[in-house]
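Workshop exercise sheet. Pairs work together: one partner reads the sequence aloud, the other fills in the structure field after running the prediction. Swap roles for the next sheet.
Pair: D.N. / O.F.
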Amino acid sequence: MAHSHDNHDTHDTLDVWSVEGRFQHLVYSPRGGVEGVLIDTDGVPTQFVFGRHDEGAASAFAGLQVGQALVIEGTEEGPSPKGKAAHTVYRFERLASVDGETPRHAGAGERIDGTVVRLNYARHGEANGVVLDTGDFVHTRPDGFERLGLKIGDAVRAEGRAQPLATGEGRVIEAARVNGRSMCAAGEG
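Structure field:
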C-alpha cells in the first residue's frame, strides 16, 4: 500500500510516498555500514535507501524484529544507470510508524549541552561538527559548521536525533538546531 501526499517544501517537487509493509532486514553498505532497509509490501520487496550523511536513519531501525508493521516515507528513486533494479527503491525520508505507534527515535527529541573541545572533520578535510567536553559529537555538516562559526571553548546546545558513538562513549547528535539556529539550509533535502 503506497500513497503519495503533497510535500509543501518549495525546494522539493518530488512526491513523498507513505509505504506500508513489514520489516524484513537491514541492507548493508560495502563498508559494513547500514545503508537502507528492505520491507515486504503485500508480498513485494520494497527497498529504502538512506542518505549518505544520515547517520540517524539506521538508528530508527535498530532493534526492530522481522515482521513488524512499518509505515515509511520516501521519495521514489529514478532508474539506476547501473542496470535494472530488482525491486522498487525509495530514498528514505522518515520512519512514520512501527506497529501503529510513532517510533521513539522519530523527531528531534534529544538535547545536548556542552563546551567545544575540538573540531571534527569530514572525509575531504572540512570541519563538519564539534566534539564537546561531554564526549558527544555534534554533526552539523560542513555548511552548517560554516554558518555557526563555532570555535574551541564555545558553549553549545544542540538538538536533534542522537545515537551512541561506535566507541561506546558519548553520542552523535544529528543537529537539527544548534544554539537555537536551524541547521536546514534552503535547498537542502
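Discussion prompt: The helical segments are 55-60, 141-148. What would you look at next?
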